[in-house]
Amino acid sequence: MSQQETAISGVFYYLIPRTGDWKERSRSFLIGLAVVVIGSLAIISAFIGLALRSNSGIGIYVIVYTILCAFVVLISDAYRKYRIQEKHMTPRTGWLFLSAIFIILGFVSVVVGLFWVPESEGSLSSALVLGGTVLGVVVILLYDGYPILEERGSAGYVAMAGLLIVFAMVYMTAVSWWVVPYDPRDLDVGPYISAPSVQFPLGTTSLGQDLLSRTIAGGGIMLQVAVLSVLVCFSVGVPLGLAASYRGGVADKATSLVMDSIFAFPGLVLAIAIAAMLGPGVVNMALAIAVVYIPSYFRVIRSQVLTVKELPYVEAAIVLGARDRDILFRYVLPNVLPSAVVVMSINFADAILTAAGLTFVGLGLPVSVPDWGWDLTFGSHQLIAGKWWVITYPGLMIVILALGFTLAGEGLNEILTPKLKE
Q1: Where are the domains of the chain?
Q2: Cα-trace Rg, the chain
């Protein structure tokens, strides 16, 4: 391996310059390395500090285990790239190898969780599997993400920043119940509406609950609602847009009329009305949000299909007698799918904000469940009395999570749409 081929990728740039501008690249490398290392150490130190005083008593073991999983993924990914470079493994085989590593780590995590704390009913297993997987993906983004940054410039940095924010929030939520200092559902763990202090770094709520514990654990419901709603939107909106716009005629006009009618309603008002009819629950909230955003997928896919189906290669496939199913899934869908992925990533941010709005107006889960929306509701009542911390930190977490999804969506939009670069 020559010196020119030796490189550190990911956020760390290329360590060995290819054009001789060593001073400029080494300065960029050191700045990028310092930012990533200092930021990573700060986040890890914060989680370890929380874990040492965790209510569960095993928080430090959970954090260490997930970090070990990420280290295994890092070594496996380096081995994969080495084998590919030495021509002993194809890129496809390399990704299959890495997928097998994730599957093995998931199986081991399930076994460890079930036998370590059997009375947890699988919640520890879920934390270990999700936490280890997310940290492994973060390692791959940092270590193997540079080609995206190099190819698309600023769009790559925006997408990378958004994805890292989202995965950091997902990891925090995954391990939250094992690292928080108090059970976020417990009442009277401290004085009522206490200002931030050493014992309660973010203060307490009007019910004497630790706000730090509720802030860390409060994203679980929102993430579940967002993921379920986006999956429903994608599963319904994309096939409808494909079939209706490709067929055309009455089916296209009728479907477009229904979608435009739904789209005409204010999103939050329609979601509130549907959630009020369905009742509380994660699935019902997800369905209420999904109905609101299905037209967005339909409209984007429909406009793309109307353009793609007029292209010469699609017309050639029709002339050669290809079946409609083959044309849709082999020629049309691959060309419109990037647009759907971009809409999906941006839709996550909308779903987070809508879920917070539903909980804020009292249509979410019971008040005993830690949720940022409920904390916003209670905090709004205390803000007039100067108790700013009750509403500030949950609101900040919602903003950060929505910002992460928005950055990821905007960056992916430019990466997957080369014309925007021009």
Answers
A1: 3-179, 219-369
A2: 24
Tokens of residue 119, six digits: 């009375």
Instruction: Please say whether the beta carbons of 335 and 300 come within 8 A.
Output: no
Alpha carbons 76 and 74: distance in angstroms, whole number:
5
For residues 306 and 327, give the distance between their C-alpha atoms in angstroms, rounded to a whole number. Answer: 14
| Integer Cα distance of 98 and 91 in angstroms | 11
Q: 């698309």: which residue's tokens?
A: 152
Is the CB of residue 340 less than 8 Å from the CB of residue 238?
yes
Residue-averaged pLDDT of the chain: 80
Confirm if 101 and 137 have CB atoms less than 8 A apart: no
Homologous superfamily, domain 219-369:
MetI-like (1.10.3720.10)
Strand, coil or helix: what is 210? strand
pTM equals 0.82
pLDDT of residue 122: 52
Burial grade of 384 (CB within 10 A; 0-12, 13-18, 19 or more): exposed
* Signed CA dihedral, 194, 200, 202, 208: sign only: negative
Of the candidates 292, 306, 291, the one whose C-alpha atom is nearest the C-alpha of residue 244 is: 306
Cβ of 422: how many Cβ atoms within 10 Å? 5
Amino acid at 252: D
pLDDT tens figures, 186-218: 888 888 888 888 888 888 888 888 888 888 888
